[in-house]
């Protein structure tokens, strides 16, 4: 029961990032780049503090995967915030989640891992869901926000692939956040910072310090007890939670296209992630 509650809290934190970002950027409380920058700074401070508290020092975790991790994290943060100028909370989370899984699948092919037929089928179904939600007409998305969230998903997928061999994931995450600061902040200066209001600043800090920094730390604590398959399935709840949060807090009620696309994306990921015995067990 304790593990279930910790996992549920972590999934709420992940979904909260989408709701907080949309809440701040959508109505114009803060600019997208400013939100990403403040979120990054707050997350870096919290993660570095956690590492210093637990490790009594901020030791360098090594260079393996560091450049890819930092660049992937930077692309995720910027693409995520820019996308929420035009996507609602649930749709953004669904596109992000789908692209992360597609990127992880491409990483497996690049590494020449053995990919069973079921995983190919699952990836194809998930891609079909993304194509449905991006299709023009009706509730179809504008190309720009969709492309930004797709970039964020690729960035987070690369970040996840780069961190698979980390011996100290918490320290590696803290360093990735710290090293991303000199990348993200200059881009913000080039784009031109606007003056955010107090609501925008507060939402960005909460997203960085709580739902990102503490949320990621909690995820790394429960991940070894879940295993890869259960971890992937647990994350299926994030787009749905984000959609419910957007409906409750932002009055963004998802339409039929969202739920059809969700069924395809989440069903495809479940098919690709679950072990065969779990799928056939009665």
From TrEMBL:
Membrane-spanning segments: 32-53, 65-84, 90-110, 117-135, 141-162, 174-194, 200-219, 231-250, 256-276
Lineage: Bacteria, Pseudomonadati, Pseudomonadota, Alphaproteobacteria, Rhodobacterales
Chain ranges of the EamA domain: 5-134, 148-273
Annotated SUPFAM superfamilies: Multidrug resistance efflux transporter EmrE
Record's keyword terms, sorted: Membrane, Transmembrane, Transmembrane helix
Localization per record: Membrane
Source superkingdom: Bacteria
Pfam annotation, one family: EamA
Protein name per the record: DMT family transporter
Topological type in the membrane: Multi-pass membrane protein
Gene Ontology CC: membrane
């Amino acid at each position: 029961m304790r593990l279930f509650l910790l996992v549920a809290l972590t999934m709420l934190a992940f979904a909260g990032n989408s709701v907080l970002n949309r809440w701040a950027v959508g109505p114009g409380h803060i600019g997208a780049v400013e939100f990403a920058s403040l979120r990054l700074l707050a997350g870096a401070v919290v993660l570095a503090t956690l590492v210093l508290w637990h490790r009594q020092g901020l030791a360098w975790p090594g260079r393996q995967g560091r450049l890819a991790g930092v660049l992937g994290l930077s692309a995720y943060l910027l693409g995520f915030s820019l996308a929420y100028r035009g996507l609602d909370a649930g749709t953004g989370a669904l596109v992000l989640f789908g692209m992360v899984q597609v990127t992880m699948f491409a990483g497996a092919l690049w590494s020449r891992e053995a990919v069973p037929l079921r995983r190919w089928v699952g990836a194809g179904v998930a891609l079909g869901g993304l194509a449905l939600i991006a299709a023009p007409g009706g509730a179809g998305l504008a190309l720009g926000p969709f492309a930004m969230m797709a970039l964020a998903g690729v960035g987070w997928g690369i970040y996840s692939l780069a961190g698979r061999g980390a011996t100290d994931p918490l320290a590696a995450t803290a360093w990735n956040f710290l090293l991303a600061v000199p990348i993200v902040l200059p881009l913000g200066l080039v784009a031109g910072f606007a003056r955010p209001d107090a609501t925008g600043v507060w939402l960005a800090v909460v997203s960085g310090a709580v739902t990102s920094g503490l949320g990621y730390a909690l995820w790394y604590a429960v991940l070894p007890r879940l295993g890869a398959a259960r971890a992937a399935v647990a994350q299926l709840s994030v787009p749905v939670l984000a959609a419910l949060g957007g409906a409750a807090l932002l009055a963004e009620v998802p339409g039929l296209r969202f739920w059809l696309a969700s069924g395809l994306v989440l069903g495809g990921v479940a098919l690709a992630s679950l072990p065969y015995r779990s799928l056939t067990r009665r």
